[in-house]
């Protein structure tokens, strides 16, 4: 009996030690449990809703080389485009990289041919890829307001078009988006009348006509703007809704909608965004669901949703620069651009030096 008792006790203790060892491993390495690395792929159903995982690159470590998932390095990614087949294109704001990320998160570098003048994109802020494979890139250089120096349109056959800006005003482009129905592109920013020293936010077709970029220009009506946005208004971001409405961000601190009939009105008037720590406010990106009932916004160190007029903080804020994946307010996020998955179960976003995923359901 004593021998049996000792054997049983030894087995129990061994099991407990093994369990404790596993628990300790999970507790001491939470980042490894969430991030997608060279040999690991996590199904969203295995994680709680409102969990953030890093799927490509490493938030705290920027550089430039290709690879699988978190073994790759991204260099200040900003613009993001998520195609129907699950492939991502990312514009890097540091250097001249345009990156491609497969649905299983393998990162490669897209070869962008030089223009006829030998120029290549530098400091890319946006990239959008059309159904025929045309790659459209916005670039910027210098200090605020980041004057655009060129637009690159790369055709599937390798031809590169670098159209000039129209010469009626001085244009600065800040965002580029796709229409969900006809695959045409829209671009936004600010136009300045240098003769009369007046500026206004602009939204126009990203179309080349007579060698110049931009047609069908919509100018923000000054009387419709809040007092603090009437001077030098900029359309810093926007989203083309499936309902035909364009959701427009003015100066990073106010959201408007532009209906197909041309009605321009402010929505969510009582909502204040973040800490307004930047020159143009804190709201950096906005996307909407197909039924347009929910809007997601990247707002400083949080990602929030607005549904039926109710605002909800999904993840963040996390004090300091912890660079941590996690659930809810345990995640440290500083999202730049958002992309909603086709089935609307996840938000993808660029953040510092990484591509990250927020599980919604």
Automatic annotation (TrEMBL):
It comes from the Bacteria. PROSITE patterns: PROKAR_LIPOPROTEIN (PS51257). InterPro entries: 6-blade_b-propeller_TolB-like (IPR011042). This is ScyD/ScyE family protein. It comes from Mucilaginibacter pankratovii.
